[in-house]
Amino acid sequence: MLFNLIPFGLYICFLLIALIVGSRSLTHPWLFLLRSLFPSWQFFHRLGRVPRLYYRYKKSTGDSLSEDTDPQWSAWILYLPKMKPSLRHLFFNANGNLKLLEQTLIEQLLQECAEIHENNEASKLVSYRMVERLVQKILTAQNDKTIDYQFKIMAPELGQAHIDDDDLVLHSPIMRLNHE
């Protein structure tokens, strides 16, 4: 019985130390993996920015990846993962969980972009690469040709009606998606 209480006691001690020391971001890779075991109450802290993923694409006509005012570029498309609610989703909701995970990934990228100093460092982040793959997955499902694409993360304040250029967090370079 006492042996079972030792891990629980260590957990309570860790939580108390974390409360006393204050909240700090996890920097060590092993501590970052353990974050799912410990509760985070930051969602009570304040209302903040809501990150949104936008992407655009154009059919490739050549080998150059130059940004110009070519009318073949689509308008910026908002990727907003939503699911229609259903009673069945109370018991099994794999697609809904995937959509929540995608939005959490975008929020993680926003948080990591706030911690880095230069925009060109963002492309080295794991969350950046994962968002890049998400956009590739979206475009692969929509198109069957080789296309150029870009994405950007906009983060307006919660409740803000109009989005302007001040809300831009990250803007990717033009990339090429090859369907093979």
What does this 3D model show about the protein?
With 180 residues, this protein is an alpha+beta fold. It is 36% helix and 14% strand. It is built from four helices and five strands. Strands 1, 2, 3, 4 and 5 form a five-stranded antiparallel beta sheet that branches. The longest helix has 22 residues, at 94-115. The radius of gyration is 21 Å and the shape is extended. The mean pLDDT is 76.
Layout of strands and helices, then pairs:
Elements: H1 2-21, H2 29-33, E1 52-59, E2 77-79, H3 94-115, H4 126-142, E3 147-154, E4 168-171, E5 175-177
Antiparallel strand pairs: 1-2, 1-3, 3-4, 3-5
Helix pairs in contact: 3-4
Brief account:
Strands 1, 2, 3, 4 and 5 form a five-stranded antiparallel sheet that branches. It contains four helices and five strands. 36% of the residues lie in helices and 14% in strands.
Low-confidence stretches: none
* Number of H- or I-type helical stretches: 4
Helix-residue proportion = 25-40%
Name the helix and strand elements from N-terminus to C-terminus, one letter apiece.
HHEEHHEEE
Bulk shape: extended
Mean pLDDT: 76
Tell how many strands the DSSP assignment holds.
5
Main sheet attributes: strand count, strand direction, barrel closure: 5 strands, antiparallel
Strand content: 5-15%
| Cα-to-Cα separation, first versus last residue | 60 Å
Gyration radius (Cα, Å) is 21 Å
Which structural class matches the secondary elements?
Answer: alpha+beta
